[in-house]
Amino acid sequence: MSGSEPTDIVPDSERRGLIGALPEPVRPLASLIRLDRPIGAWLLFWPGAWSVALAGMADGPFSGRGWALVAWLALGAWAMRSAGCVYNDIVDRELDAKVERTRLRPLASGRVSLRGAWALLVAMSLIGLIVLFQLERIAQIVALASLAPVAAYPFMKRITWWPQAWLGLVFSWAALVGWPAVTGRLEAPALLLYAGSILWVVGYDTIYALQDMEDDALVGVRSSARALGRHVRLGVAICYALALVLWGLALNVVRYEAFALLALAPLALHFAWQVATLAPNDGASALNRFRSNRFAGLLMFLACLVVGTS
Hints:
The chain is an all-alpha fold. It has a single domain, classed as Orthogonal Bundle (Tetracycline Repressor, domain 2). Helices cover about 70% and strands about 0% of the residues. The protein has 17 helices and no strands. Helix 4 (about 65-95) runs antiparallel to helix 5 (about 115-130), helix 8 crosses helix 10 (about 190-210) and helix 9 (about 175-185) runs antiparallel to helix 10 (about 190-210). It starts with 16 loop residues before the first helix and ends with a helix.
């Protein structure tokens, strides 16, 4: 960013906080990978962590190996979420310039060149490749299979009212990676975790999409929030309820005892709070409930850890 660049295209987030503390030339790049907004990395990470924790029973007590694998998945989630943000902004740079909430993104505002964005995308992908080499062969194959749906995601909002469902396919993929990374096999619990996570993603991303309903309508972007309209709270509640059912089945496959289902009670209460207190017409309320899903992910991780190691 040059000193003569208009200040009205520089967001406040680059003047303070984590990004504001960085050297000025790298701030737009840090914004491009959402360095100051780790919520996306958390949401991408949790399904893999659940799968590793629940698979702990198949591999003996959850040990140092399990924690090391969780750490590698955390690094991979951060790198691939960063790469995904860059790729999404490359595809959506013209659309982002028309939406108030996204017009100051580095590519949309011209503060990062297209060539620079591609270079950053490659760098983040190389970090993901390092993580890939730490996994079992079948887990590597499953992880690589995610590249096609990831590449297609930015285009879904142009052709379907439910891009959140496609995001669910992508953001839940780590659930299919974590289990074979521990056991060397892809089995029913991982598939059930994955299916439940897809519904969880549809629920929380519908909440997120409430912030952009007016702008989305103006530029023709489709979303589940617009599709559900005044029934959005009911739609989110159904998604969360079905997610809990599928996750309960996953836990029940691993340990066929009543206490396994009780492990989901704190998460069920949290989901009930989200739905009951959500104000669909209040952007701040929607953002707060969306962000609370990193805590929901932690509650699910603890449930998987209890069941997988008991």
